[in-house]
Design goal:
With 461 residues, the chain is of the alpha+beta class. 33% of the residues lie in helices and 23% in strands. The protein contains 14 helices and 23 strands. The chain starts with a helix and ends with a strand. Bound molecules: ligand EPZ.
Length: 461
């Protein structure tokens, strides 16, 4: 391991250790109190981590602002450092300076030491193949919300000319002839696979045409960043993205798009606890679909220049039928926190999860607290879905109103974990929520935010 890598491994382990402080931690929540007050959301986890990888493509340093202090960012920072990219804190809070000029290959063991449960390493391939002609990817993690395959990613990279070699501990990739622009059609508008194409096509020789692309706001913000670096990218109608490869890219300066998933999570918390939360930094355009559903359930909101106020206006919550979908549909990451409010709605709600096959594991804890939720393998909705005949429990029927009472629950994954927090906060009585460290993967300073909103809890020493 080269000295830079050894140093980076130590730093990242220390940094991760800081976040691991909560990893196995339990918090004891006395529920039944409305959450009220103001919190701020920073840059989107699902943009910032990719923007950090994009910095590798530049010939000079990049500046990224509004970076949240979450462990997913610490993981990517460690991965960049083991690859010789220097990452330093800028002048303003949440500002990172990323200098790729010392980029080097890293060994699988070093990558593995950081990758942890992140899926981001697969996005290093295109940039590293352009810069170094080779890339190593350990077997990847990610929240257990389904199989999380990377077949689309590997197909994309092969399409560009990458040679993929399966190793016992992961994958080695080379690009002996360089990477050449190509025509790609995704079988599903995968966010990650679209990012894979973007991060590879921008420096490939010639043109790339991507059909069936994801067009999430985080994808569009990554395109903003790449265009700032010198890339030529057009987004046509009907999910068609065209990229003209260029010979070099500069660094970028960018303030990340806000985290709409965190904003939606706190909005759901306001609804479920009869509360009133101002989410600073939240913007209406990227939350349009969520706001419609929030209003239909009986929530109220006010759009301000510096954020959105989400509150329970009184009265009964109403049941809804939701089908998650790719953008601009109802985002899959929004359903878990909202299901808690649906458990309190007067009537029967249905959630048809069409993006991931196993994303209702978190409902077990809600049932333990008194919710009435049945899972079905049928597609309970009009949306065509890949999981219908494959026996995945990907539809939920939520009957309310249920009275939630405190219970001991364990956080299963990031968004499910946040719904456990909301359930404990809205239940009467005391809950012990364990393994809460996972939540710090995607929610910056959530303990301080809970305190600011008046939650009654303590950390179980
Ligand atoms: C991103 O995951 C987000 N994660 C997810 O957020 C988000 O839920 C998801 O996009 C959908 O919006 C990050 O950006 C780090 P996909 P990603 O590729 O890119 C299948 C959170 O909590 N698929 O759009 O992994 C896949 O199994 C996380 O912040 C393949 O089959 O999502 C899934 O069914 C959770 N083969 C569907 O596509 C592949 O090679 C959508 O996945 C890739 C994906």
């Amino acid at each position: 391991m080269n000295p830079a890598a050894r140093n980076a491994v130590a730093n990242a382990a220390r940094a991760a250790g800081a976040s691991v402080g909560l990893a196995g931690e339990t918090i004891i929540i006395n529920g039944g109190r409305p959450l009220t007050g103001r919190i701020e959301v920073k840059g989107a986890k699902n943009l910032v981590t990719k923007a950090m990888v994009a910095a590798i493509l530049g010939d000079g340093p990049s500046v990224l602002r509004d970076v949240p202090a979450i462990s997913d960012v610490r993981v990517v920072r460690g991965l960049l450092e083991v690859h010789g990219v220097t990452v330093t804190d800028g002048d303003e809070p949440g500002e990172l300076i990323l200098d790729p000029r010392g980029v080097v290959s890293a060994h699988m063991v070093d990558i593995d030491a950081h990758a942890g449960s992140s899926r981001i390493p697969i996005l290093f391939c295109g940039p590293l193949l352009h810069k170094l002609g080779e890339a190593f990817i350990p077997d990847l993690g990610g929240c257990r919300i389904g199989d999380r395959p990377i077949d689309y990613h590997l197909e994309v990279l092969k399409n560009f000319g990458a040679v993929i070699e399966k190793l016992p501990s992961g994958i080695r990739m080379t690009a002996p002839e360089g990477l050449v622009g190509t025509k790609i059609s995704l079988p599903y508008p995968s966010v990650g696979a679209t990012e894979q194409v973007l991060l590879t096509a921008v420096l490939a020789q010639g043109k790339t045409e991507l059909s069936g692309a994801a067009i999430e706001p985080e994808i569009m913000d990554l395109i903003n960043i790449l265009q700032k670096m010198g890339a030529i990218i057009s987004v046509d109608t009907d999910r068609l993205i065209r990229i003209e490869g260029v010979t070099s890219l500069s660094g970028y300066t960018h303030r990340a798009l806000f985290d709409r998933n965190e904003a939606a999570s706190w909005a759901a918390a306001a609804l479920a606890t009869d509360g009133d939360i101002f989410v600073g930094g939240a913007r209406q355009p990227e939350m349009l679909t969520f706001l419609n559903v929030f209003r239909k359930v009986g929530g109220a909101f006010e759009i301000h220049d510096d954020g959105i106020r989400f509150y329970h206006p009184g009265g009964e919550l109403k049941p809804v039928v939701i089908e998650t979908d790719v953008h601009p549909g109802f985002m899959t990451d929004w359903q878990q926190p909202l299901v808690v409010a649906l458990a309190k709605a007067h009537g029967v709600s249905i959630v048809h999860e069409t993006v991931y096959e196993q994303r209702f594991g978190f409902t077990e804890a809600l049932v333990k607290m008194g919710a009435t939720i049945q899972l079905h393998s049928d597609c309970l909705g009009a949306h065509p879905c890949r999981f219908g005949q494959r026996n995945f429990q990907h539809s939920a029927i939520i009957s309310g109103p249920s009275h939630l009472t405190g219970a001991d629950v364990e956080v299963p994954d990031l968004r499910g974990g946040f719904s456990h927090l909301i359930a404990a906060l809205s239940a009467t009585g005391t809950s012990r929520v364990s393994n809460v460290g996972i939540i710090s993967r995607g929610y910056e300073n959530f303990i301080e935010k809970l305190r600011a909103l008046g939650a009654d809890f303590e950390i179980d020493a």
